[in-house]
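Protocatechuate 3,4-dioxygenase subunit beta structure dump, as promised
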Amino acid sequence: MAAPTDLRLPRYPREPEGTNAPLDFDGYNSTKLRHPSQPLVLLPQMLTEVTGPLLGPGRLGELDHDLTRQHDGEPQGQRIIVSGRLLDGDGRPIRNSLVEIWQANAGGRYRHTGDRWPSPLDPNFDGLGRALTDDDGRYEFTTIKPGAYPWKNHDNAWRPAHIHFSVFGSAFTQRLVTQMYFPDDPLFYQDPIFNSIPDEKARNRMISRFNLERTVPEWAMAFDFDIVVRGSEQSVFEDEEDED
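structure tokens r here:
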């Protein structure tokens, strides 16, 4: 049997200094236990890693992009439209890329066995969505604005309202994870995850923009959130997926 092919993939410049958080951040207590204690080892990507499984339209359900219509009843909370473009470092659209989101409900609770704080679950809201970018690199979700929630990192700690995003290349090994926040959140100042990003401009790129033109009257608010995978305007990405 022939040995797996070791692909020579193109190399890209690293993100600008200060774009991503350090692996160990003093104010974020969980990093003391989670961050690597040994130097990272680069594993070459083989043909299997970059060619499968395929992430095409056949993998999506009809309502995967609309988190408000996945059950018989409507979820509680403020309906919002979240849309934007997935771009490369030169501003070109990244087409047919899988974008996933996951989030808490309007009361700030995840549908997860580990989330047991006393805020009610919503039987009509799972908090999970998927969409493919179009030829302009655009995606769109209809969902509910999430609530803040406590997380015990420090005294009276509450996470600002946020939505988790992941974007894929052609396979699961080509995955980037980030978070989207909402403008003027009063909890920004005390959140160590948000404030762990050294560069203020990079930090502010995690905050969505209210878009009145895309708001649907008497139906839904609208927010824009572009994701840039590299370059001087690169979005902030997590080096390892975080449960918070």
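Helices lie at 31-34, 47-51, 192-195, 200-204.
lmk if u need the other ones
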